[in-house]
Amino acid sequence: MISSCKIETKMKKVYIEPLLKTFRLIANKKRLISQFENPLWISNEFCVKSTIGIHFDLCQLEVSKICQQVRESLMKDSVPFNIGPNIKTRNEWLKHNSYISSQIFCDNTNNPDLILVCDGTYFYCERSSNNTFQRSTYSVQKKRHLVKTFVICTTDGFIVDIYGLYEATKNDSSILLDIFYTEDDLMRLIAHAINKKYKLKLQYPAFINKNQNQLSTFDAITTRLVTKSRYVVEAMNAFLKKSFKALSEVKNKSLTHIIDDYKIACTLVNKFLKRLFSDDDYNIEIVNNMKRKLNTINELECHIDDFPKIDEQIIKNHITLGSYQLTQGKSYLAEHLNNEKYEIRV
Length: 346
Hints:
Residues 119-270 form the DDE Tnp4 domain. Keywords: Metal-binding. This is DDE Tnp4 domain-containing protein. Its cofactor is a divalent metal cation. Helices cover 50% and strands 9% of the residues. Strands 1, 2, 3 and 4 form a four-stranded antiparallel beta sheet that branches. It folds into three domains: 2-72, no CATH class; 79-292, no CATH class; 308-338, no CATH class. The protein has helices at residues 2-9, 13-23, 29-33, 44-56, 60-77, 79-82, 90-94, 99-105, 131-136, 172-182, 184-189, 217-243, 258-272, 283-292, 299-304, 312-319, 324-327, 329-338, and strands spanning 116-124, 138-139, 144-154, 159-166. It is extended, with a radius of gyration of 28 Å. By secondary structure, the chain is an alpha+beta fold.
């Protein structure tokens, strides 16, 4: 353990042993890491395993074996009973529908549909000498190498399952399609929501077309309805990365078991975390207001659709009748704003 530490940190054995012994006593890890010559070489996994090894007088290889045994035990005895589409009956899953989502998206509240929220997330990984892996994990958007996972949860934050690993080049729609083709347990769970044409009732935020500057009134309202329910999956993804640091950025050698680590983390969340309910005290009033405003007409839009586009030339020729007032406009505005007697109305 010490020899490998010496190579990574470029420090001698006599210096690194006291630091590792005091690591578990220091609340702020940054204070310890800042003492190393090159802290970029030190990962969370390295620090944790080294701390455990020092505390129990074990070498890092023994700590790695014990961690693997614990991981296998949790995957066998705990994960199958706390995460997965088949751990509950359909009626039990329906109890996880939030009141707001049920009232908005279910046509028949007496026989409600199961509402699931899906979203992809990612974690950063290292570069690789394997060209195929290098290309498949590079994200043009993030400008970094990453691997994707896909989370499905209920509207109260109970995680149904997490799927992966997927390439950085795959989008959420292709990932979801792969899951539908390969995961029989999930298909049995959502069988009641599938119509005769093998389609789901999908709700997703609206997108602006190329020729549009903004969403229409109806699209903007329906997008808010979806956002009101889909925030839970964003909150769960953020909670997992914030609470379990090893899930935010991993080394390539840990990719073989990272999905198991994700499932273990989701098991702990389902078992011990309080369910998410937004605005539980005012949900009836909120639902009534959202339904009432669903078909609201934007009256202002009728007046501004034909509002003329005024350029600088029109202002000079027809409003200011010259360029002097136009160039002095900023000075006039600053003067009036400094004087509390004036109001600027647009």
